[in-house]
Amino acid sequence: xxxxxxxxxxxxxxxxxxxxxxxxxxxxxxxxxxxxxxxxxxxxxxxxxxxxxxxxxxxxxxxxxxxxxxxxxxxxxxxxxxxxxxxxxxxxxxxxxxxxxxxxxxxxxxxxxxxxxxxxxxxxxxxxxxxxxxxxxxxxxxxxxxxxxxxxxxxxxxxxxxxxxxxxxxxxxxxxxxxxxxxxxxxxxxxxxxxxxxxxxxxxxxxxxxxxxxxxxxxxxxxxxxxxxxxxxxxxxxxxxxxxxxxxxxxxxxxxxxxxxxxxxxxxxxxxxxxxxxxxxxxxxxxxxxxxxxxxxxxxxxxxxxxxxxxxxxxx
Length: 316
Fold this sequence. Notes:
By secondary structure, the chain is mainly beta.
C-alpha cells in the first residue's frame, strides 16, 4: 500500500481509527513473558546493540561511557568489557555480517555529526576504520540485508532530517546511494526480513514531541519505498529486532515520558500485534536476539539524559 507522504502524517481521527481496526491484532490478554537478567557493567543510553555468534554486544552511549563496548553471554548470564571504540559515539547504528560488527555514523562526544565506519573483529578483539559514509549523520538506523548494510535517515550536518539511504558493501569497502526515505526522520528503528527493509517510527528533526508511527518498506530490487500499516503507538528513541519473520519494536520517548510498549509487525499480513509491556519503560535502548529470546538492554527510564544498566528479556 503506497500512501502519499502528506497523508501519512495527517490522518484524521476517523481515518486513523479505521486503519487501526484493520491493521492491529491485540489479544485479550497481552501475550509473552519477561525475565530480568544480569545488568550491564555500566549505565548508559542511546546505545547500539547487535547479536553475533551467541553473544550480544552493546556499543557506545550518551555521556561518559561513549567509548565502551560490553559483551554479554546469555548462557552464563555474564557481561565483560571488550576493546573500546576508537572514538566515543552515541546515537550510532550497528550491524553484523560475516563474523564482524560494523558501527556506522552517530554523534561524537561533543555532539559532532559523524560519517565514520568502524569494523570490529570479536576474535582478535580489535577495531579498524573503514570507508566513511557519503552522508554524515546521527540518530540514523541501520540493518544488514544479505551481505550489505543499509544506513538510513538521521540528522544531517545542517541539523535537519536527511532521507539518505546508503548501502555499504563490507567485502569491497564501498558505499552506494539509493532511493531516499519518503518521510525523512531520526530516532527510528530499522529491521530486515523477508528480503525487505522496514523503517519504523521516529521523530521529525530531533523533536520528541513530533513522534511518528509511520512504517516504510524498502525493496532493494526495485529501489523503491512504500508505506505500510503504521505502528499502534507514535514513538521515537525505539529499538527493534526480528524473530520468526516478525519485527518487534520496543520502548521510546515523547515529551510526556517514556514508553513500555512492545508491538510486533507481520510484513506478510501487514498487521501489528500488541504484546506484554516491558517491565521498565525506556528510550535509547538496544535490542538483540539469541535463539527465541529478545534481549532489551540499557536505555533511559525518563526522557532526556537518563541512564540504566537494565537487561530484560522477552519471549513471545
